[in-house]
Write a structure and sequence with these properties.
Layout (H helix, E strand, L loop, with lengths): L6 H9 E6 L2 E6 H7 L1 H8 L9 E3 L5 H11 L8 H14 L2 H9 L6 H11 L2 H13 L1 H8 L4 H9 L3 E7 L14 E6 L4 E7 L9 E6 L2 E6 L11 E6 L4 E6 L10 E4 L2 E5 L2 E2 L2 E2 L3 E5 L4 E5 L10 E5 L2 E7 L4 E8 L4 E9 L6 E6 L2 E7 L8 E7 L4 E4 L8 H4 L3 E3 L2 E5 L3 E7 L4 E8 L7 E7 L2 H6 L4 H10 L16
Parallel strand pairs: 1-3
Antiparallel strand pairs: 1-2, 4-5, 4-29, 5-6, 7-8, 8-9, 9-10, 11-12, 12-15, 13-14, 15-16, 17-18, 18-19, 19-20, 21-22, 22-23, 23-24, 25-26, 26-27, 27-28
Length: 489
C-alpha cells in the first residue's frame, strides 16, 4: 500500500507542520503551536488555504528567534545574549507567544534590562516592556546615565513608576482591646532620609508571631501565627493593599499551622510545612486567588518547620537541613506538582540558615561552626552550571542581619537593630555599598519588598524611633487604636 494512502500516515502528517524560515525548516506539532502561539491558533481556525497546508513560510520571524521559541516550548530555560534577546522579542511579538514572553521576563537582569525595555517597546510587547521598566526603576540610581540614552518617552515612563521599598514587620501577637500595642506596625525604609518609617498598623487580631508572611501582586499577606505561648493558631489570614491603604481578611489554610514560610507566586500563595500541635508538618497548601480557596498540593520531601525559601527566574526553591552537615535544595515544579532535588551542600554549622537568590544564583547563608558561630558565611549555587562556590570573606557579627536578607536588582538589603546595610552582589563576594539607620526593634523580623503609591510614600512620615520613644516615655495605658480590618489610617 502506498504510504500516502495509509490512514495512519495521513493522520500523522496532519498533526505536524513544516515551518520554513528562509533556507531553514522545522517540523513542529500543530497542537503545540496552536496552544502556545496566537498567530498559529488564528491561522488554523481561519479556514484559509494556508490553514490546511502541511507547510508554511514565515517571513517576519528569524531562524534564531524561532529556535529559542521551540526551546522554551520544550521546557528549556535558555540564557540569551543580546542578539538572541532581540530575535526572541521579535518572534514573540509576531507570533504572540506568551510562554516566550514569560521566559524573557524571567531572565531580565541589570545587563539586559535596557535592551529588553527598548526592544519590547519598539515591537509592542507591553508586558515585557513594563516588567523591564519596573526592574530599571529599582536600579535607577545605578543606571541613570544609561537610561537617558533611551527615547524621552521611555525615560518618562520609568520615572512615573515607583521603586520597590524595603519593608519590615516584627513578630507580634494579637493585641488586647484594652491595651493595644502601638508598635504593631508595618514599616518601610525611607532611602532619602535613611530612616525607617511607619506605613500602617496591624489589625488588632493579626499575629505575626510564627506566621507566614508574603507579598503577591504588590499586596501583603499574613497567614497563621499564634496567639501566645499556648501556640493557639490564628485561623484567619489578612491582606494589606497599599494602593487603597486597607486591610481585609482572607481564609487561612485548611491545616492550622504556624512557623511556616508563605510564598507568593504566579497568582497563588503557598503555605509550606510548619508545625501543628508542636509536630512538624510536610503538607503544602496552595491558595489560588482566581478561585479563592486552599487546596493541598505535593508535600515536602520531609516534615519541616521554618523552611528556608527563595524564588528566582520564576522558580521556587527550598532549603532543608537534614543533619550531619547536609543541606538539600529542592525545586517545586507547579506544572508537575512535584518536588525535585536540585543539589546537596555539605557544610558544618551550629544553627541558622537563610537563602536568597540573584539572577541564576542561590546564596545559602549560615552561621559558622560552634567555635565560630557568630560569623556568617555563604555558599553560592549556580543553577546554570550546577556548581557550588564558597563565597570569599565573612560578614562579622552580622548573622541576624544577613538572615533577613532581601534582593532588589543587584543589591541585597540586610537588617539589624544597629544598621540597615546594602550590599552590591559581585561575582565572588558581596561588597558593602552603604549603611543606614537600624530598625531598632527586638524579636524576629520579616522583611520583603513592596511598591508604595507616591502619595503614601510621601505622606507617611512617622519615624519608627519616634513611636518607640513615645511608648517608653508614656507610662499611661496606650490609647485604643481605632484601626479595623478595612479602615484607612
Amino acid at each position: 500500500m502506498d504510504s500516502n494512502s495509509c490512514p495512519q500516515s495521513g493522520l500523522c502528517k496532519s498533526l505536524s507542520l513544516k515551518v520554513c524560515i528562509g533556507c531553514s525548516s522545522f517540523m513542529v506539532d500543530r497542537s503545540v503551536l496552536a496552544e502556545n502561539c496566537e498567530y498559529f491558533r488564528a491561522l488554523f481556525q481561519s479556514g484559509m488555504r494556508e490553514s490546511l497546508q502541511d507547510e508554511i513560510q514565515l517571513r517576519c520571524v528569524g531562524v534564531l528567534g524561532f529556535l529559542i521559541l521551540l526551546q522554551v516550548l520544550d521546557g528549556e530555560r535558555p540564557v540569551l545574549n543580546s542578539d538572541e534577546i532581540v530575535e526572541a522579542i521579535e518572534c514573540t511579538a509576531f507570533l504572540q507567544a506568551p510562554a516566550l514572553t514569560k521566559h524573557l521576563i524571567n531572565i531580565i537582569n541589570s545587563e539586559n534590562c535596557l535592551l529588553m525595555y527598548h526592544t519590547a517597546a519598539t515591537f509592542g510587547v507591553w508586558t515585557l516592556s513594563h516588567s523591564s521598566a519596573l526592574f530599571i526603576r529599582d536600579l535607577y540610581p545605578d543606571l541613570q546615565g544609561d537610561v537617558h540614552t533611551l527615547p524621552q518617552t521611555l525615560v518618562d515612563y520609568i520615572k512615573s513608576l515607583q521603586p520597590s521599598s524595603y519593608m519590615a514587620v516584627c513578630s507580634h501577637s494579637p493585641s488586647s482591646e484594652l491595651l493595644p500595642d502601638p508598635q504593631r506596625t508595618v514599616c518601610y525604609l525611607d532611602e532619602t532620609s535613611k530612616d525607617w518609617k511607619v506605613l500602617t498598623h496591624l489589625p488588632a487580631n493579626t499575629s505575626t508571631t510564627m506566621a507566614g508572611v508574603a507579598v503577591l501582586d504588590n499586596k501583603l499577606y499574613i497567614m497563621g501565627g499564634v496567639h501566645d505561648v499556648s501556640k493557639k493558631v490564628v485561623e484567619s489570614g489578612f491582606c494589606y493593599c497599599p494602593a487603597a491603604n486597607t486591610w481585609s481578611s482572607i481564609s487561612g489554610p485548611q491545616q492550622l499551622r504556624y512557623n511556616f514560610p508563605l510564598i507568593g507566586h504566579e497568582g497563588c500563595l503557598y503555605a509550606l510545612g510548619g508545625e501543628s500541635n508542636m509536630k512538624s508538618l510536610s503538607s503544602v497548601e496552595r491558595f489560588r486567588m482566581s478561585e479563592g480557596s486552599w487546596s493541598f498540593v505535593a508535600s515536602l520531601p520531609c516534615p519541616a518547620a521554618s523552611v528556608v525559601t527563595a524564588v528566582t527566574m520564576n522558580r521556587i526553591f527550598i532549603c532543608l537541613w537534614r543533619g550531619q552537615g547536609a543541606t538539600d535544595i529542592h525545586e517545586y515544579i507547579p506544572e508537575q506538582d512535584q518536588w525535585q532535588l536540585v543539589s546537596t551542600l555539605v557544610r558544618q554549622h551550629s544553627y541558622g540558615l537563610c537563602m536568597v537568590a540573584h539572577k541564576d544564583n542561590l546564596y545559602v547563608m549560615r552561621n559558622g561552626p560552634c567555635e565560630d558561630f557568630l560569623q556568617c558565611v555563604m555558599d553560592r549555587y549556580n543553577l546554570s552550571s550546577s556548581q557550588w562556590t564558597a563565597m570569599s570573606g565573612q560578614y562579622g557579627n552580622s548573622k541576624s542581619s544577613l538572615f533577613t536578607a532581601v534582593v532588589r536588582g543587584d543589591s541585597v538589603f540586610t537588617l539589624s537593630r544597629q544598621a540597615t546595610t546594602e550590599f552590591t552582589v559581585e561575582e565572588q563576594a558581596w561588597r558593602l555599598k552603604r549603611q543606614m539607620k537600624g530598625f531598632g526593634r527586638t524579636g524576629s523580623i520579616y522583611t520583603f519588598l513592596m511598591r508604595l503609591p507616591k502619595t503614601r510614600a510621601s505622606d507617611m512620615g512617622t519615624s519608627v524611633d519616634k513611636i518607640h520613644n513615645q511608648v517608653l516615655r508614656d507610662d499611661r495605658p496606650c490609647p485604643r487604636l481605632t484601626l479595623q480590618c478595612s479602615d484607612h489610617l
